[in-house]
Amino acid sequence: MKTKAAVSLITxxxxxxSLAVSPSGAEAQQLRDLFKKVKDSxxxxxxxxxxxxxxxxxxxxxxxxxxxxxxxxxxxxxLTAAHVVQAVDKVVVEFGDGRIVxxxxxxxxxYADVALIQLDSVPQGAAPAGLGDSDKTExxxxxxxxxxxxxxxxxxxxxHISGRKAPTSSLGSMSAWEFLQTDxxxxxxxxxxxxxxxxxxxxGIVCNIVTRSGGFEGISFAATSRIARTLLLERKPxxxxxxxxxxxxxxxxxxxxxxxxxxxxQKVGEGSFGWRAGLRPGTLRVSIEGNDLLLGGDIILxxxxxxxxxxxxxxxxxxxxxxxxxxxEKVVLKVLRAGQIITLSSTI
Length: 348
Description:
Layout: H1 4-21, H2 25-38, E1 42-52, E2 60-71, E3 77-80, H3 82-85, E4 90-94, E5 100-109, E6 114-119, E7 142-147, E8 155-165, E9 179-182, E10 194-196, E11 202-209, E12 220-224, H4 225-233, E13 242-248, H5 249-254, E14 261-268, H6 273-277, E15 284-288, E16 291-295, E17 299-303, E18 306-307, H7 313-323, E19 330-337, E20 340-347
Antiparallel strand pairs: 1-2, 1-4, 2-3, 3-6, 4-5, 5-6, 7-8, 7-10, 8-9, 9-12, 10-11, 11-12, 13-14, 14-17, 15-16, 17-18, 17-19, 19-20
């Protein structure tokens, strides 16, 4: 039989453990209040785009998409992830109270995975969130994410900043810009949703998870609010609407490219620059060394005289070049199509 002293000791140990693993009442209260403050700014984004069917005889089909976003201005600007809207044909935004509004893509920076869409009309009472200073965010800071994982809108998950991944880190195509790493749970449907600091300010846009199972495994990433502000709100809008893959080496030789590298067009969003220029997307689904891609589409060789290289340098130059053009100036593409080099052009 346990003595009174032993029971008392066990009680204190149990209390200490519960305090260690559970948030304090004050912390829970703060998070609850913060959620009430920001929830009306978080939206669900639904998209439609053309896709090549898995069975060749079925041709092209319309594919729905589901993601999240955050309203950041009174006039209807919504931030989301670039991969959510880069090559879509239709976008609608659903607010937490069920109101649905048509929208269109304004600007997209694929290399940083951030995009800006504009609501066709702003619902009465819409409450935009404020952008925080992500440069002040440090590893260990508490954060929370609100979004629509698997379509469950206004879902909150909480965690910490696990790291800041600089351009020198090995994140593949994500490494062009710094990203915030977090252990806050992120799943399918969270893409494009906001990451908030404990002041209720947006400091990141959720863009990616590292997973082997396909679900959350403790590592997810968000593009910083600084990058979103710089590329989408402070620069000239640019939405190419082109989803492409940089090809080089042996694949470039197999496809008979007249130069070491090019951009193989996968999809083209309706109404975008690429669509107006007449770019043709891929039509044949194949797998090469475990990578799925679409063949049969145009291969971009040059943009305004800038040749595509086997690194990101040429693409950075292209974005800088296009950013300096006047609205009436054309972008000229040199394209390989069915073995022939042709020229396409359109205004941005």
